[in-house]
């Protein structure tokens, strides 16, 4: 379906619907921007969704001239988010070659190729790098998010209101970003400074580091009331070794133990030395160990013993030697086989407490693990594929990796889940993530409410349903987190950061006011009440104006730093693209 989009102008082309592509189409529609889709590997389910939205969908490859059928000549931007980096690269280069003035945004996972594309003026973004900070903040229960605006550090911090009062009387000129009333999950976005909060309400504020109040430290309950003790640690270490050991190792060990026990009894009762003196139990045990280990000090002899005992001694020597040889061969196999990496990883986890378990070592999981290590957190990774491409990166970071199926209880016990401070379930399969998350909930038991569990799900609506139905507190869609960056880059909005307030994702963006656009000359208070202007960089170079005065008006060339839900920021961007006579006036703000 092309629906005549080949002659469109000012629209955005999305190449590829998988992952972030569908979310980008959805958000462009919310912003009122016309969009056309070019897909060289169509998924019938996603195709039906965009067609139901009335979005033109063309099946074809840029290599075969399909870009013309989606109106490349008149497009304002193209967003290339195909699953394959080579196809993404090819599409972006062809588009840039045909339209040197076109705004090109690409998703590339290879950093070297990304740097090369950025060098020719292409905006390069990576879903893993964009979404990982939100996952890390949820794992560490961070209540502060650092943002840089025009070279100055700002911090969005969540604090608890100490009394019932207006935001202005409690926090002065600090910009209130959101309020979550105590005991609810409702989020009041960008409230006015005269908004009244009650004691215990969670208030998110944005300001410079010297002005924002320090958040109360998040208490992470200790999984155990006291130190487990020396004997408990010995039992844990022994259990970890036995769990890692090959079960076949127990058979020769059991046979050897039985042989020594029986021979000790036989020698205690049947052996008679000089003067008819028999062996004590210790003597008999000593002789058996001496014999099966082939040491033979010669302090005991069967020369003068009855024939049946000499025959028994022959069997003891042969059988003992064979069992010892088999036992040590299997023990050596345990230490040098392909299981040695897993065994060492578990050995390093013995007694580990207060760590973060990352399940799934894809691009997102690797980024999350790396950022957690940078935050001085102890990390353990569970990955099912022993040939995973990120294993070397984890070894270089000193992060132990257990090759196991995280949906199985024994795999979760192997990473000391009972003592973990947080869990991030980040595989690329939604069903596996949900199954793993439920397995984690079962294993945590009473600690479920205390341990943050971050669950990655592609579909936001499914994520909200899972949160309500199963009690997950942090369900994240990496595509939904990254899509605003792609859409913003396509439309001219520089997204500077994303973070969550409760279940509400918030964006911080920078917009350059267009000459003659809908914002040129507009009063700041005329913007949507759900969008806050936190600072303005004047075009005349007067510096950053923070906080903006109540009657501040935008001027052409100003850089406005905005915060709010992504739908609202895209509406502001859309408004600036219109002439002042076309721009409708929103409800007055603060």
Secondary structure layout plus pairing:
Blueprint: E1 12-15, H1 20-30, E2 35-39, H2 44-52, E3 57-59, E4 77-80, H3 85-98, E5 103-107, H4 111-118, E6 123-125, H5 127-140, E7 144-149, E8 152-160, E9 165-166, H6 167-171, E10 175-180, E11 188-189, E12 196-197, E13 202-207, H7 230-244, H8 250-270, H9 281-292, H10 307-336, H11 340-349, E14 356-359, H12 363-374, E15 379-383, H13 391-397, E16 401-403, H14 409-414, E17 422-425, H15 430-444, E18 453-456, H16 460-470, E19 474-476, H17 478-491, E20 494-501, E21 504-512, E22 532-537, E23 544-545, E24 559-564, H18 566-576
Parallel strand pairs: 1-2, 1-4, 2-3, 4-5, 5-6, 14-15, 14-17, 15-16, 17-18, 18-19
Antiparallel strand pairs: 7-8, 8-13, 9-12, 10-11, 10-13, 20-21, 21-24, 22-23, 22-24
Key features?
18 helices; 24 strands; disordered C terminus; six-stranded parallel β-sheet; single chain
General description of the model:
This protein has a 6-stranded parallel sheet with strand order 3-2-1-4-5-6, with helices on both faces. It has a 6-stranded parallel sheet with strand order 16-15-14-17-18-19, with helices on both faces. The protein contains 18 helices and 24 strands. The model is unreliable at 217-228 and 580-590 (pLDDT under 50). It is an alpha/beta fold and 590 residues long.
In short:
The protein has 590 residues and is of the alpha/beta class.
**Poorly predicted segments:** 217-228, 580-590
Q: What percent strand? A: 15-25%
Specify the overall morphology: elongated
What is Rg? 33 Å
Count of individual helical segments: 18
Instruction: Strand order, main sheet: write it out.
Output: 3-2-1-4-5-6
Fraction in helix: 25-40%
Rounded mean pLDDT score: 82
Extended strand count: 24
Report the structural category: alpha/beta
- How far apart the termini lie comes to 45 Å
The biggest beta sheet is recorded as: 6 strands, parallel
């Amino acid at each position: 379906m092309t629906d005549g989009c080949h002659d469109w102008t000012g629209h955005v082309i999305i190449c590829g619907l998988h992952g972030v592509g569908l979310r980008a189409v959805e958000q462009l529609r919310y912003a009122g921007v016309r969009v056309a889709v070019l897909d060289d590997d169509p998924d019938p389910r996603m195709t039906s969704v965009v067609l139901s939205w009335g979005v033109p969908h063309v099946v074809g490859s840029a290599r075969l001239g399909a870009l013309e059928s989606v109106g490349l000549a008149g497009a304002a931007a193209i967003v290339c988010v195909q699953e394959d980096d080579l196809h993404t690269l090819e599409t972006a280069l062809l588009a840039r070659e045909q339209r040197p003035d076109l705004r090109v945004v690409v998703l590339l996972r290879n950093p070297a190729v990304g740097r090369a594309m950025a060098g020719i003026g292409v905006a390069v973004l990576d879903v893993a790098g964009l979404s990982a900070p939100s996952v890390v903040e949820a794992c560490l229960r961070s209540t502060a998010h650092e943002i840089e605006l025009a070279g100055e550090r700002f911090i969005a911090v969540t604090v608890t209101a100490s009394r019932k009062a207006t935001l202005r009387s409690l926090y002065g000129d600090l910009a209130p970003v959101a309020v979550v009333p105590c005991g609810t999950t409702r989020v009041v976005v960008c409230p006015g400074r005269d908004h009244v909060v009650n004691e215990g309400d969670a208030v998110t504020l944005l300001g410079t580091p010297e002005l924002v109040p320090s958040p109360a430290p998040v208490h992470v309950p200790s999984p155990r009331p006291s130190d487990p003790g020396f004997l408990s640690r010995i039992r844990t270490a022994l259990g970890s070794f036995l769990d890692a050991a090959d079960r076949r190792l127990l058979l020769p060990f059991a046979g050897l133990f039985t042989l020594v026990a029986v021979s000790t009894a036989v020698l205690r009762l049947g052996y008679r030395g000089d003067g008819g003196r028999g062996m004590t139990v210790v003597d008999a045990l000593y002789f058996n160990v001496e014999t099966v280990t082939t040491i033979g000090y010669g302090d005991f002899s069967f020369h003068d013993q009855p024939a049946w005992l000499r025959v028994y001694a022959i069997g003891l020597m042969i059988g003992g030697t064979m069992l010892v040889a088999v036992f040590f061969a299997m023990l050596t196999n345990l230490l040098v086989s392909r299981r040695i990496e897993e065994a060492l990883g578990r050995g390093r986890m013995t007694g580990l407490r207060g760590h973060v378990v990352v399940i799934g070592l894809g691009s997102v999981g690797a980024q999350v693990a790396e950022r957690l290590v940078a935050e001085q957190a102890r990390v353990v990774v569970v990955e099912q594929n022993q040939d995973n491409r990120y294993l070397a990166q984890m070894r270089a970071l000193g992060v132990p990796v257990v090759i196991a199926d995280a949906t199985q209880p024994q795999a979760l016990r192997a990473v000391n889940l009972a003592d973990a401070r947080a869990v991030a379930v980040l595989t690329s399969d939604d069903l596996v993530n949900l199954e793993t998350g439920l397995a984690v909930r079962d294993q945590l038991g009473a600690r479920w409410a205390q341990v943050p569990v971050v669950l990655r799900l592609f579909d936001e609506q499914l994520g909200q349903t899972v949160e309500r139905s199963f009690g997950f507190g942090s369900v994240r869609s990496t595509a939904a987190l990254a899509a605003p960056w792609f859409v913003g880059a396509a439309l001219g909005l520089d997204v500077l950061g994303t973070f969550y307030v409760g279940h509400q994702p918030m964006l911080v963006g920078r917009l350059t006011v267009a000459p003659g656009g809908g914002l040129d000359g507009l009063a700041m208070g005329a913007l949507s009440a759900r969008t806050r202007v936190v600072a303005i960089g004047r075009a005349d170079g007067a510096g950053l104006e923070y906080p903006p005065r109540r009657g501040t008006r935008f001027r052409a060339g100003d850089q406005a730093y905005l915060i709010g839900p992504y739908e609202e920021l895209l509406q502001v961007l859309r408004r600036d693209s219109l002439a002042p006579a076309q721009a409708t006036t929103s409800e007055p703000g603060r």
